[in-house]
Design brief:
Strand content: 25-35%
CATH class of one domain: Alpha Beta
CATH architecture of one domain: Roll
Helix content: under 10%
Number of strands: 5
Largest sheet: 5 strands, mixed
Order of helices and strands: EEHEEE
CATH topology of one domain: Ubiquitin-like (UB roll)
Radius of gyration: 14 Å
Strand order of the largest sheet: 2-1-5-3-4
CATH superfamily of one domain: Beta-grasp domain
Low-confidence stretches: none
Length: 78
């Protein structure tokens, strides 16, 4: 428990998402970030701190304070 916070109050973590400041609650995974962007996990590539994260690992890769996350969305068409 952090000093100064009331029980049950969740403190947001600050990350960089595609170069912009972004806040997420503790316990957020990369898959949660993808879903918050209203994207499908099978149509994105995700990089965390300059390392590509496999789609199969998105649901178990936690986001940490200060992370730099890049999400690229694939768009089909012709």
């Amino acid at each position: 428990m952090e000093i100064g916070l009331s029980p049950g109050v969740r403190q947001e973590m600050n990350i960089r998402l595609n170069g912009e400041a972004y806040s997420v609650p503790p316990g957020t995974t990369l898959l949660d970030v993808v879903k918050r962007l209203s994207l499908r996990e099978d149509q994105v590539a995700v990089e965390r701190n300059r390392e590509v994260v496999r789609r199969a690992e998105l649901h178990r890769t936690p986001v940490q304070e200060g992370d730099r996350v890049e999400v690229v969305h694939f768009v089909g068409g012709g």
